[in-house]
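User: Can you predict the 3D structure for this chain?
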Amino acid sequence: MIPPLMTPAAPWFADTLLAWFAVHGRHGLPWQRDPTPYRVWVSEVMLQQTQVATVIPYFERFLARFPSVEALAAAPLDEVLHLWTGLGYYARARNLKRCAEVLVGAHGGVFPDSLEAVEALPGIGRSTAGAILALSRKQRHPILDGNVKRVLARVFGIAGDPGSPPVLARFWARARALTPLQEVDAYTQAIMDLGATVCTRSRPACTLCPMTSRCVAAREGRQAELPARRHRRTRGRREAFLLVAEQRRGSGARLVYLERRPERGIWGGLWAPPQFEQREALLEWCRRELAVAPGAELLVQALAPIDHAFTHFDLHLKPLRVLCEGRASAADGIAMPSAAGGSSAAGGVGGVCVADGVGEAGGLGEAGGVGEAGGLGGACAAGGVGEAGGLGGACAAGDLTEARGRSLWYSLAAPPRVGLPQPIRALFDRLAKDSGPADSGEGRRPGAEIA
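Assistant: Here is the predicted structure, written as structure tokens:
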């Protein structure tokens, strides 16, 4: 039960903060223009763990494609993830999509008016719910993101682990007590701005801060101590081989094999090349699943390693590019951006289609083998596959129909609108500029070998 908001305590804090914000605050951010609940919500979710300068271009592209909650609810998840690529923390994008569907289905596309109802929506916590209602509807609700915690901890000397329940309760009580009765939207933006631009994590600009004369941390020299650091686990390290299986088609198209990652776990719901613990397991999978003619060669080239930091561990990937000679068979669907006009026949690449797609039994199984039936299911006609197959049906120009399968062949020259992890997209950008290992004779590139 959230305690009711009482008359604000320490009115000097809000008065001082609002006076500073009027002169030094940020007033021209894209989501501040026409601050509807939808626009504020999208911006608040994007700004979680991400700086404003990074978010601005993503926000503008996202709103251009999904100008309303109805547009977001109706969009394929793959396109939502595609526009999110590079922002990280991809669960935020999946929750945006789920929340939009709930808003349309249960609330007629309109954000609820109560804090409790907004907080009950998928992916929206207490602070985000308060920010949405304060910034868009000027309702009096406190917020408590990382910037606000830092300001409150330093100004009022709130010590202890900010994530522990007793300390968190003190933060919320202080945030509630300080929230003013008037100008709630300006106050909410102001306290976030102060933490983001002046009371920063390292090297805070105390000489520019309007709170310096009353700030406990500034008076006692405890800026580095407050807020206290959370207890962090020892960072782990994981290593894996990354299969970059590349196939050449008669048209000259260069295709790379991708699988959709599980919803839970790193890069959840995104498309990425398969990973293997051992090099030998990777090559054996290629021989078995990317089945070419018996005795055919696999040309292998080691690519530059990829290092990527997650919240609690570091990932070291060793990409191996494998050139598949002939026509590979594993989950053989091609995802290409559509031409204006929609669908294409099976085997072509006009609209988004899956050529020679797999049927219900054709997807890859959890253990890396083929699906339950052990092989390819029935091939589809007219550019799509069955319910459990792959990418289905036709689509409008530039769009991608929801990818229902677990694998696809990704065109480097004409990338489909699917979500990729940022390191994988950067890898593909490099590959697209490179002709790849030669497939025969003296033209073979250095570092390529036969396997």
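The chain has a mean pLDDT of 81. Residues 342 and 396 are 6 Å apart (CA to CA).
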